[in-house]
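call fold(seq) -> tokens
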Amino acid sequence: MTASGGSSGFTPAEAHQSRRLVIVLALTAVFVVLELAGAVAARSQALFADGVHLLLDVVALALSVAAMRLAVRPPSERFTFGLRRVEPLAALVNALLVVGAAWFILEEGAADLTNVTTPRPTLMLIVAAAAVVIHGFSAWLIHDAMEPRGVDAHTHGDERPHTHDEEHPRGHHGHDHGHALNLRGVWLHLVGDTLGAIAALVAAIVIRAGGPAVLDPIGGILVALVMVLGAFKLLRDATLVLLDAAPAHLPTRAVRDLVSGEPGVLEIAYLRVWSLGAGHDAVAVKVRVAPAIPALASRLGDRLRHELGVELVTVEVSDD
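ret:
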């Protein structure tokens, strides 16, 4: 039987992602005070809803930064798989925070529909315009960090060839999306903020031109509904990882076809396909052969890593 596993430490791509998270956290922490103060001064429900969501973003961003740092810690005597699962857990919490914020915004917006307060459109417009710039820039920073970054996305600073019995730093494409689920949770928050700011900006322009003040709470409600849709998708994806489901991009059938198609394999005794976290996939398989075939386990492991991008591979061969 042979196996390969992961190691600790940020890769260049992961260090880039971590830096982006810290920058966005700093921007968000400063601007949330300004936006909430501006929302109160402008008497704007749309801006206030966006500010509340932004306040939760500070918590979500801090949680995501901590999750990234924990996820790259090496395996220990107790956590023998390492702490990769911290990231889908953080994504799950972030999605729940989005749902909670959306529920609060919906309640406040519904109440304001029956008791409309005319906002101060000029001040509302200024604050909303600033919010669009800050939120949009932050969302772009995170989205850009989610994209593969050339050779850095595939290497760990060690270009020497590996044998099957060595510990492998990552799978073939594990770097590209190693923190994607966690970052997608953050990006979802920021997109919600940007949409909220745009809704407030449009409402401010229309109200300033003489339109109805009810557009202000309506804008907050529409943003909350968009937030909920994105949050449920994130909840689903994070839950599937935590339940050890086979990743959608690595279906069990594809793994089974590759293994059973290897010359000399008579039967697959068992097959397990799961994910430690987004982009960090694992396969454990036992095959029966007759007669014994030298290096079969090594060949299968190499194919699983290089053709399907599996990071953690365990292959057991039995000839009984």
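The helical segments are 12-42, 45-71, 86-114, 121-146, 180-208, 215-242, 252-260, 296-308.
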